[in-house]
Each structure stands twice: as structure tokens, then as C-alpha cells.
Amino acid sequence: MQIEFQQAIEKHRQRVVTLARYSLRSAADADDIAQEVFVKLWQHWPKIDHDKQLPWLLRVTHNAIIDFVRRRKTRNESIDDAVDVEAQAAEQSQFEALENNQLTASLTDAIRQLDDPFRSILVMRDVQGLSYADIEESLDMNASQVKVYLHRARRKLRADPQLRLRFEEINSSGDDAV
Amino acid sequence: MSQSSEQTQCYAMQLQIDTFLDGELEGEQQLAFVGHVAECGDCAHELRYAQHLYESVLDLPKADFSDALVDNLVAISSQKRVHQHERHERHEGHEGHEEHRGKTGALAETFRQPSRVGFFAQLDQFFRDRLPLTIGFAALSTLVIAVVIVMAPRVDNAPQPLVAEVTPDLSAENAAMIPAAFDAAEVRMALEELNTAIDYLNRVSRQTETMIGERFVVLPLQQSVNSSLRRASFSGNEDRQAGPI
């Protein structure tokens, strides 16, 4: 059982952490959420349908993120921001290095600002490339609901003024080069 | 084409951008979309923007957590085993496993912290942790049944009849089966004394010209005494009094 648990961590860790990272500003918070999710996986190991392990993990992650955000809203935001800044300053991961690209950074911010379930569905489908079946199972929705939310999430992203500005900059510099 | 109808058409086409990017537009819809984008600069620009964003999202980095966290999680899973082992050995009187503690980080303490959940959740956890599933289920079921039985309302709270039930009349054969707890002569003597007492009561009631005796006390008592004498099947006895004396 322990070996199977370790295999599950190896197999799904990226999916769980990616969903958390694109939902929360603080990498440390995202890691905490991911860790909490895997602890729950271990605690519920005997009761889980292991054919549907990934949807189970994503559902628990999604719920944990919602709970976390709800809890944070009730706390003092300024303290929370200070913690975030410290955590982000301390973190020098490859993920954040990639975020240094301006468009990527704006895109990540815009995704984080989406509401649920738009954000989760966009991250699951477009960032992680999960199947519609897995997303449906994770969020307890049918295929058409998932598609509707996904398309709306993309339209919301396109409506983000920062992203449009970045795109126009890239577009105009491309035209200038031509 | 008027400006408003163009705007409506552009809006309808832009709603289909995502379906087009997903490769799910087919047949006439696809032809109409491609045809419109080829002619409309705004929609072509919007499509390029959408495609660029879509590809940028696809290229977004996947996050991962550190190996230290993985080690922590692995330690947690093994910690629970160690914890169970410790509990087992402590039960047998062996101590000194404190060195196991603190090796797996603060998160591992979640398994040690006293649960804040309610009593029944703890009970459930107890059964799940310490007993095989079938035995645990059986024990839990027994407990539930026992609680239901204890909590159920008592049946013997039924209202008592205001008048005592009439005892079934015993035949002579059955009367013979009455245990001889009392001597027959003593019973006869007691009944005669009782009869005398009733007689006295009756006389008093007549003297005081009250009706307490005849209708409500004397006659029923007299009949009761006579039937008792009959049931006791004394030989050769007749009713001591046939009605009020």
C-alpha cells in the first residue's frame, strides 16, 4: 500500500500542484494545499476507487482551494499579503523563472483572477490537457457544462485588458520587424 | 449589409472562435466561419489574438513541488505504520520509542494530534483503525441496536384499567391445584370474621341512616366472600349470607 501511495504521488503530483499554483498567488500556499490533498489521499486510501484516482485528487484539490480562499477572505488580508510576498520572494523555482516572461506572468495572473469553476476547468483542460471525462468526473458536471464553462473562461481571459495590451505590443513589434 | 447586422454577425462568429480552435466546427458552420474571418479584419484580428492566447496557455509551465515535500509525504505514510507499531509495543509494556518522533516533520503530527471531531467520528475511527472491517461493522451494528433498544419507549406504560380485571373462575379441579399455602380452616375462620365485620358495618350504616353499606360496600363484599368460599370448595358450606345481613 505504501509503495502504491508513492507511485500515486509520482504520477499525479504535477497535476495537483499545477491546479493549486494557478489558483493561488502564493507558491507556499499551493504546496500546502497539494500536501494536504495527498495526506487526504493516504487517509482515504482504502475507500478510494483507484481507477478514478486522478478525478478524486482533482476534486479534493478544487475543494481545498475553495476552502482556502474562503478562509483567507475571513482573515486579515494585509497579513496574508505580507506572507505571500515573503513566500514568493523566497521561492526561486523553475516555475517562477518561467513566469518572468511578461505575457506568461500576465496570463498566470489573469487565470488566478478567474472565478471557480472557470479557473479550474481552464487549468485542467488547457494548461494540463486533461480529458473532458476526467474534468466531468472531478467537478461532477456533464460534458456540455464543462465546455460552456471552458469557452466562457477563455472569453474572460481574452477580455482581460492587460493581456490584450501585451498581445498588441507583441503584434505591433512583429509588424515593425516586418 | 447594415452596420448593426455586421456587428451581430461578428458577435456570432466570435462566439464560435473557441469551438473552431477546439476543431469542433464542422461542415457549413466551419465554411461560414472561415469565410467570414477571411473578409472581416476585426474578426481575423480577434481570431489571431484568441489563437495566440490559447497557445500561450497550452505552453504555460506545469508546476511541481519539491522532493522534500514528497519525502515528507512518504514519511507520513510510513509514520503511521511506525505509530501503530509503537502503540502495539507500548501496549506490551515496551517504552522508549520517542526517537521515532520528530523525524517526519510537523505535518506528520496531524496523525498524532487529538482529533477535534465528535465522539461518534472518533468511535468510527477507532473501529476502523483497530478492528478488521467485518468485525468492526458487526460491533458497530450491535452497538447501534443496543442503543435503539435502550432508547425505545417502554411498552409497559400502557394505561391501567380503572377496574381490576375479573379473575377467571376456577373449576373445582383447578381449585385443587391451588398451592396449600394456607390452612383451609384458617381461611374459613378469616372469612367468617370478615363476614361478621361486614354485618357490623351494615348495622352501623342503618343506624346512621347512611347508604354507605348496602349498595356500595356490603353487598359487593358479601358476594365476594361467598364466591371465595365457593372457589375454595369447602365441603358442605353454603353461602354465609345471601345479600346484606
TrEMBL record, chain A:
GO biological process: DNA-templated transcription initiation
InterPro entries cross-referenced by the UniProt entry: RNA_pol_sigma-70-like, RNA_pol_sigma-70_dom, RNA_pol_sigma70_r2, RNA_pol_sigma70_r4_t2, RNA_pol_sigma_r2, RNA_pol_sigma_r3/r4-like, WH-like_DNA-bd_sf
RNA polymerase sigma-70 region domain mapped to chain residues: 9-73
Keyword set includes Transcription: yes
GO molecular function, one term: sigma factor activity
Family (UniProt): Belongs to the sigma-70 factor family. ECF subfamily.
Xref: PANTHER family: RNA POLYMERASE ECF-TYPE SIGMA FACTO (PTHR43133), RNA POLYMERASE SIGMA FACTOR HI_1459-RELATED (PTHR43133:SF8)
Name the record gives this protein: Uncharacterized protein
UniProt organism field: OM182 bacterium BACL3 MAG-120920-bin41
